[in-house]
Amino acid sequence: MHWIKKLGYVTVVALWLTLIYYPIPGIPPLHKFFLYTSSPLQINSINNSNEVFKSSPFGEISIGVNEIGVPHIFGKNELSVSYALGYMHARDRLFQMEMITRQVSGRLCEVVGEKAYQSDRLWRKFHFEKNAIVWLNNLKKISQADYDRYIAYAEGVNYYIKNMPYGKLPLEFHLLGFKPSKFKPENAYLLVRAMDHRLNYSEDDLKYSETSQMLTDSLMQFYYGFIDPLAYPIYPELSPKMDAVASQLPLAKTKQVWKFKDLINITNGELGQGSNNWAVAATRTTTGGTYLCNDPHLTLNFPSTWYEAQLNFGNTTVHGMSIPGSPFIISGFNTHAAWGMTNATWNLVDFYNFLTPENTPINSKNAYKTNPKIMLDGKTTQLQKITDTLKIKGIGNRLVDYFESPFGPVDTFGGQLLATNWIAMMESHESLTFRGLEKSRSVSESRKALHNFMQPPQNIVLSDDSGHVGMVTAGLGAIHKTPSVGIIVATKLSDKVDYKPLQGIFSIENPVKGWVASANQHQVNSDFSKMVSHRFEPAGRGRRIAQVMESRPKHSIDDMKNLQKDIVDIEWSWLKERMKQYLPPNEFEKLNGFSGVFDTLSTQATLFYAFKLQLIKNASLQIAPDLPWNPSHDIVLNHLLTKATLPTKKGDISVKDLFISSWDSTKNELTKKFGSDSKNWQYGKYHQTHIKHLTGLPALSFEPFASVGNNRTVNVAANLPATTGPSMRSLITFSKDGPQAWFMLTGGQNGKINSKNYSNQIRNFRRNEYHKVLLKKSFKPANYQTSIKFN
Questions:
Q1: Which stretch of 522-536, 547-561, 562-576, 728-742 has the lowest confidence by average pLDDT?
Q2: DSSP E strand stretches across 708-764
Q3: Which string of b and e fits 491-509 if b means at least 16 CB within 10 Å?
Q4: Do the beta carbons of residue 480 and residue 221 sit within 8 Å?
Q5: Which has the closest alpha carbon to 426: 490, 487, 481, 499?
Q6: How many Å apart are CA 66 and CA 782, to the nearest integer?
Q7: How far is 423 from 196, CA to CA, in rounded Å?
Q8: Nearest to 515 by CA among 556, 474, 468, 464
Q9: Which residue, 51, 60, 61, is CA-closest to 85?
Q10: CA atoms of 703 and 182, how far apart (whole Å)
């Protein structure tokens, strides 16, 4: 019996050793947790001591880190501060940088397994990893100084990786069981493509094509027209000029679109989660200096998109928000000028179908075996087949096939072979812009720097210490030959839509009104808008900003802070008269006294917002069930405000009946969620914000919390629960005493969960509080919590 017991012990030990050493897909290598030398229990992200290193390749560098983790970097030249910023980005955001690189190069499957297969398949066909090397080498020919900054930045990142104590390796690497890769200088180009995808990539044309097969031409024109009747333009001063430009554009016949089915799962969520920025000229401020406010709304994640930093080199001191993976300040200010940006929301992804020699559209059936032929300019062209290998953790290699064409990579979408032409495929060198902005001394100089910006257009707001303000929509636009959306059937090479720089067209400095602003809406009320985009963001936020700007002759700094945290939904003022007209008096009384303010305690905010969502949803459902793409919010809203009936696939419906049925279903929905007592319908229960870690792991995320605002307020909190909002805020002013600024970062500086700066600024975000920023032109250790020196 004794030997049986010993055998049992041996068996248990053997099973235990097998369990902790055998690589189980999706589970980190467990044996490392039980060995002190390799255990993640050693993780120590606290940086509370001063550090001294040998001299950097670029000379002496001093870094002072304040109490919230913001580094102030002092170096002799651009290369030294780029090296140091690379070091700090790696120290605080290494896992984030690794995942951005892997995402865009299509190598996520290697570390997270099959769940990233669709992502890797999408990215790999664009060859960004290979193209980034070419683009970096081309930059060297254009600007040696820009090229050298990328080299120095990468050396700083790699110095940290090489000398990082094991206990500083971020927890995520332990959990996924891999080590950080060496950072390459060309990775900065991959970061730009990641932002392109976040801001611009969409498959709206596919959704539109399918929708157009479900509805009549008259319904498509009524609900999916190019004219937004509620539009409030960014540049009203330029609208007449752009009408003249549009009249000169060559118009072609609308291309035929082909029906296709079984698209990737498409969901129709809330629209309207874009950003805000504005600037006020010195003539319209109480301080006599300009104000610039930037408020980019992005998906809220841990770590944050942004990383605050100050760079001091030569005669330049620049402070603002960088993005880990790049050595430049993307949004910020120096001693003379400031800048910030929002997305221009243009359509920069086109999909193309082709005809075979038999004059039929190509499809995916047997295509990967036969290598299909297409007709272009009357000639037969064979698509070039590409076979790529994806390495999938826990599974092995998987081959993926696609084709190359003059219009971009050709892949399967809903049974059809379609080519994708996306602006991210274009070579561009953003360093030329951001390096220029860092050194700019005026709005005019900033505008010149923006002529080098050649990526998805951004509405870039500008100000300077001479009292001037400006706005430039800089970047490349896809000028369609005719207002059209959907798949383009290409029969000749000239059918490909080209990208052209447009910053010389949309630009203004010191308008008569004394301010400029953007909120992702139309640039102009002109036919030109039809050529560049089909769907801008709804006009509510832009109109609210203008309303506040014109509410008083001059504004204070506190006025600007209040505008950034404004939670008035202007659509209440539009809808309330119709609601009063259509709803029974005793029902409308439930909204008596409501002013459109969306705070967490309001029950009326819950009732109105839930009703508005239900009203728009019901209108879309009535048009036709299961629409692949819902019509524009503003177009539907305008019809609801101005029409007595709406046309649908089954005939006209009464707008009054739609209001009443939507009201009833809203009350039923809220009763199911919160009970019949409307006192329990506080907005903070109905509308919460959830900030998730980029891995999605709940333990690394932030618990949902009650949040103000909605997807139409200047202080955006979009979706239910809200996953999009102000990713950061900045307010910058110039006066005789120099620049001053107030910043807020949603999340924290440090990407390591056990750092005190991981989520410490969430409190500021929830309270709408800022931290004061002052430019420091000399390094004094006493000004900082810790310091890092490269002697």
A1: 522-536
A2: 724-726, 728-735, 738-745
A3: beeebbbebebbbebbbbb
A4: no
A5: 499
A6: 10
A7: 8
A8: 468
A9: 61
A10: 34
pLDDT digit string, tens, across residues 261-278: 333 333 333 445 679 999
Report pLDDT digits (tens) over 80-123.
999 999 999 999 999 999 999 999 999 999 999 999 999 999 99
Residue 56 and residue 425 in contact, taking contact as beta carbons nearer than 8 Å? no
User: What is the three-class DSSP state of 604?
Assistant: helix
Mean pLDDT value of segment 438-467: 96
Most confident of 4-8, 249-253, 666-670: 666-670
Other C-beta atoms closer than 10 Å to the C-beta of 53 total 13
> Residue 156 to residues 129, 151, 720, 753: CA-CA distances in angstroms?
21, 9, 41, 23
Residue recorded with tokens 């003249």:
244
Question: What sign does the dihedral 413-419-421-427 (CA atoms) show?
Answer: positive
Beta bridge partners of 779: none
Of 101, 186, 184, the residue nearest 137 (C-alpha): 186
Note if the bond before 303 is cis, omega within 30 degrees.
yes
Cα gap 272→295, rounded to integer Å:
14
Task: Lay out the sheet containing 416-422: strands in order across.
Answer: 384-392, 396-404, 410-413, 416-422, 349-354, 488-490
* End-to-end CA gap in the chain: 70
Do the beta carbons of residue 757 and residue 771 sit within 8 Å? no
Q: What distance in Å separates the CA atoms of residue 388 and residue 765, rounded to the nearest whole number? A: 44
Q: How far apart are CA 379 and CA 708, in angstroms?
A: 59
CA distance 764 to 745: 8
- List, in order, residues 6 or more apart from 104 with CB less than 8 Å away: 123, 128, 129, 190, 191, 193, 194, 197
